[in-house]
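On clarity, I found the account of how folds are encoded harder to follow than it need be. What matters is that the chain and its backbone geometry are given together, residue for residue. I therefore recommend that a typical entry be quoted early in the introduction. An entry of this sort, consisting of the sequence and the corresponding backbone structure tokens, reads as follows:
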Amino acid sequence: MAIILLPLLNWKKNTNLYTMKTLNVANHRIAYHDNGNSAKPIVFIHGNSLSAESFIFQLEDKDLNRYRLVALDLPGHGSSEPSNQKDTVYSAQGYGKIIQEFAAQLGLNEAVFVGHSLGGHILLGIAEEMNEAAGFVIFGTPPLSIPPEMTKYFLPNPDILLAYKRDLTDEQVNTLAHAYVRKGTAVPEAILTSIHGADPDVRPYIGANLAPERLNNEIEIVKQLNKPIAIFHGKEDQLVNGAYIAELEIPTLWKDAVQLIPDAGHSPQLENPDEFNSLLSEFADRNT
């Protein structure tokens, strides 16, 4: 198993995480960060057009570094190569297969898996097959039904359509980035650089793969899940309808409630990392 180191140019200057490793997964060169700790792992999966960089405040957190922390760039994102099988790979199902093989190669099957937005949908799609996983954390991820009812899952914000548009102007990148955080706040550099750096084909292919015949019935998945699952939600999320998630039947839901994170929108791991990390640490401590 060949592992290569490459520079991660977009990470902030005050971090010591200047390099990532790479691994060949299903004929894709996957870039990832791994702190190498021998403890139980936590695996981070980013959202649409984002990257491992969006978990910078978790990867640098001293308390969380008690665990083995692993964050990867999905194909077409960050420092990972674009896919030459875009129709099948650039989807929750395609990425799910990547995650399963990635975890198997690196011995991460017993991890707590953390998914942001699209990353959460990826995890829900493979959750029933991840028999050894310690648990799941999703945020910015409204579980979908079949047929999908988008107006139920999402708030009326037209900016979400940019997440499925191939070519974005600088102004549109800025608009989409602002939708990923609470209204009226500055956008973290990690979001802007990640969107700019993503393969433009990622967005339309992800959008096309939202067709009902290509979706998982995530409502049934969370009803039948036999692993603990935590759901975090930024109280000022401009995209996801938190009230919808709060009404779902999820027998293994951690603390029997969605965990609301104040002073945060769609990206609480960047907007309020102290609260996010505290919740994640507590969940991991109880389930590993």
